């Protein structure tokens, strides 16, 4: 069961990036429901500008942005600016194309440059678990 307005993550800041405005609104609403303060961006350049302009505790980005693998590129540049920033990539690539990515091993994280991977469609419980894990890991670092 998802505990909305979770005190462990309440008030933390998330940057959500997706070129699909409906998906962006839905993901932002899910994260707000968990108690996060959410900023959104529809382009990689807007996401980097938002990252530079304000504190962010977590980035949640779609794999397919302006390019088919734009989320990988954006994650790389986010990590160059803020190495400790947890980045969660979401995608439908396994569902739609059968390609399988994850970030379970150090080797996969090294080339993907993200701290988590969440395949869509996902359950809200899965999103909440990943957000808690990434924010907890950041707090412990």
Q: Can you summarize the main beta sheet?
A: 5 strands, parallel
Q: Count up the helices.
A: 6
Structural class: alpha/beta
- Radius of gyration from the alpha-carbon trace, in angstroms: 14 Å
* Count of strand segments: 5
Average pLDDT confidence is 83
**CATH H level, superfamily name:** Response regulator
The first-to-last residue Cα distance is: 28 Å
Binned strand content:
15-25%
> Which descriptor suits the 3D outline?
globular
**CATH arch. level architecture:** 3-Layer(aba) Sandwich
Structural domain count: 1
CATH T-level fold name: Rossmann fold
Strand order, sheet with most strands: 2-1-3-4-5
CATH class: Alpha Beta
Percent helix, as a range, is: 40-55%
pLDDT < 50 stretches:
94-100
Order of helices and strands: EHEHEHEHHEH
Give a description of the structure.
With 141 residues, this protein is α/β, with parallel strands linked by helices. It has a single domain, classed as Rossmann fold (3-Layer(aba) Sandwich). The chain is 45% helix and 17% strand. The protein is built from six helices and five strands, in the order E-H-E-H-E-H-E-H-H-E-H. The chain has helices at residues 21-33, 44-53, 70-81, 93-97, 106-112, 124-140; strands at residues 13-17, 37-41, 58-62, 87-91, 116-119. Strands 2-1-3-4-5 form a five-stranded parallel sheet, sandwiched between helices. The longest helix is centred in the C-terminal third of the chain and has 17 residues, at 124-140. The protein is globular and about 35 Å long. The N and C termini lie far apart (28 Å). Mean pLDDT is 83; it is low at 94-100.
């Amino acid at each position: 069961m998802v505990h909305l307005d979770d005190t462990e993550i309440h008030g933390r800041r998330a940057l959500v990036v997706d070129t699909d405005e409906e998906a962006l609104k839905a993901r932002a609403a899910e994260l707000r429901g968990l108690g996060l303060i959410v900023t959104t961006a529809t382009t990689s350049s807007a996401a980097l500008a938002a990252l530079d302009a304000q504190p962010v505790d977590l980035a949640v980005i779609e794999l397919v942005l302006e390019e088919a693998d734009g989320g990988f590129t954006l994650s790389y540049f986010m990590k160059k600016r803020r190495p400790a920033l947890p980045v969660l990539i979401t995608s439908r690539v396994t569902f739609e194309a059968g390609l399988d990515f994850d970030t379970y091993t150090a080797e996969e994280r090294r080339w993907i440059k993200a701290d988590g991977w969440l395949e869509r469609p996902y359950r809200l419980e899965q999103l909440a678990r990943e957000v808690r894990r990434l924010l907890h890991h950041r707090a412990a670092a």
